[in-house]
Fold each of these.
Amino acid sequence: MKKIIRNYSRFLKLTSDQYASASQKNKVKCKRGCYECCTVGFFDITLLDALHLRESLKQVPPHIRKRVLDKANEQLDLLEKKGAFSREDPLLKSLKAIDSISRRSAKMSCPALNETGGCLIYEHRPHICRIFGPTIRGKRRAVHLEGCGYFTRDIPEADFPILSNYKDEEVLLKAMFTKAGKKRKREVDTIIPAALTLDLKKWL
Ligand code: SF4
């Protein structure tokens, strides 16, 4: 599994580089100081993102790691108290489950966000954190990734080939499930606080 996580790390770096070039070319950059998307509740991330995040956390300085983990655990305690999430069943298996946790955590910020809007795990952040911002459009202005709405310009798919990016991600996800002994890829996700604090390998 370590090899798959290493390959995923490479995929994430490549994604960031391609996205940075596309943003520069199309002159679309997040507004300085804006971190709204990190403060409006939990979105879903894949199990591979989760395993990668947990593994990468070992590279983060101990005092930062403790801070992020304490916050994540505090948030999971609160969500469990509200009956919105369970550490015993940490997977999101449907759109309904994703919508529900997103709604019920809407006032929570990511546990990795610091007071000044910085990401404490920036080098290791999940896939979606690297590509979210302006809308990405394909041919005939088809929306391939809905952006945050603050942008008046889009990124054309020709500059950031998001469909092939998703395909590469699928290959790695499939490899992860195969390695775990599953015959096919399952549509299961989780949230960042669970990814940081729980060993999700056993849920594969
Ligand atoms: S991991 Fe970083 S970029 Fe992603 S939501 Fe959390 S603070 Fe924001």
Note: The radius of gyration is 17 Å.
Amino acid sequence: MQKKINSWLITQVDKGTQTDYLELDSGEFLSNEIIIEVKNSALNYKDALAITGMAPIIRKFPLIPGIDFSGVVIQSKNKKFGEGDRVFATGLGLGELQHGGLSSHASTDADILIKLPNKYTHSYIMGLGTAGLTAMLAVLALHENSIKPDAGKVLVTGSSGAVGGIATKLLLKLGYEVVAMTSRPEYNRDYLKSFGNIEVLDTDDFLGNPRMLSKERWASAIDVVGGKVLENIITETNRSGVISVCGQVLGLNIVTNLAPFILRGVRLIGIDSAFCSHERRSRAWDMIFDLLDVKDVNYLSEIIDIKDVYERSKLIVNGKNRRRIITNNSN
Ligand SMILES: NC(=O)c1ccc[n+]([C@@H]2O[C@H](COP(=O)([O-])OP(=O)(O)OC[C@H]3O[C@@H](n4cnc5c(N)ncnc54)[C@H](OP(=O)(O)O)[C@@H]3O)[C@@H](O)[C@H]2O)c1
């Protein structure tokens, strides 16, 4: 094992954080039972919040960020994995509670790793990663709660982003009628229309104060932005409709009323990709592998150099990003 690794590192300074791309001692940062040479990682919204210090994501300093990675095992003290195995990981505390994947190398215990099927590349799996798993879990929640493709319109918010884009594609593949909401319709309309036959709406039209109940519009919704947008969607959801609640780009707090729930039976289903059960993850991965091929994932993602992570994080937290961002970690 080489003595030095190249990594992003977040340290605590005064009351804030500082993020740098550094050469680190491998002995100090790779102390778990398996060491992986990381080929690709990704830049999730959560990573961007951590890297820019916009939200308290990191629970232990200093920490290597990155909630996803894919790479090759180069050392293992666990029989489950051997040298040369291709593996990937998402969530489960990576980049929050333990060192993550925005690095040339990562180190974890065996229970965090999944073997990467031979037919998939590291960039394919990172084109999905946490965003793909979240999108699939959100779609699965509709399916499991009797929202079938003929139920009516499904609204997807933040649709040009990673979770929203992948969810839009998955819904279309399954035959749902999709309405894509975007905060930058002029910039994103053609991109979103290229996914298939979908209607595109402007987020601005969902930022007013909602009424107690509004005209029913949505059989279901997959929401990544939260805040005022979610408040409005709740009041416009059809009887027995389901909303998969995934994100909080516009804020964690909502103010709502009980009428949509007790008069229409609207259901909010929380989606947690980071710590959902092993069985549920496996089911979601099997479904997503069936539904999205390499061409789909290439279209929904962009590869950047790992050194550009800080600049791209600023764009993400300012709502100026599009597609899923994969990082190339090999120097
Ligand atoms: N529950 C989970 O397990 C889980 C997993 C992954 C992510 N998430 C959460 O899901 C959310 C999205 O994550 P992501 O990785 O998809 O991020 P992303 O790729 O940056 O996408 C977020 C999208 O939200 C929209 N947006 C950004 N700023 C906005 C603003 N000010 N007003 C309205 N819309 C705005 C943008 O889409 P448009 O330009 O199309 O509006 C943007 O592309 C985040 O809150 C993230 O933490 C949750």
Note: The chain has a mean pLDDT of 97.
